[in-house]
Amino acid sequence: MRKTAGVYTNDKKRPQQDLVISGQVEKFVTIRPQHANMRGFVGDSVKGTVTIIPEKKYPFKILNLRAKDGKYIKYQLEETKESNTFAYKLNIENLKTDAGRYYDSIILETDSKIRPQLSVRVYGYLRPRKLE
User: Fold this and answer.
1) 26-127 CATH fold
2) pTM more than 0.85
């Protein structure tokens, strides 16, 4: 990874300096998809699944999960195998009964000292049914 930041100074010869920060970034976890899109019509069953796969170099267990708000979603975690490796399936179900949008996050508490918490964003959008 490589990032550049411009720094402004009061030095007349060098009023601006570019700082470059670079380093190796290792993947800790694969979250597929990166967030849950809960889209549908009012009255439909709207569900989604997010797969969480720990990297072999950084194994972890999910100890607990909670929603930031939890008003419009129900969720459940199950252990599974994904391509011969240990994984989790986070099943999410919409609870909203009227048209509109919502946003929430599901916080996954892990036993890892590197990443004690992971977050899965949930975006919801229920459209009204057209009258015929």
Assistant:
1) Immunoglobulin-like (2.60.40)
2) no
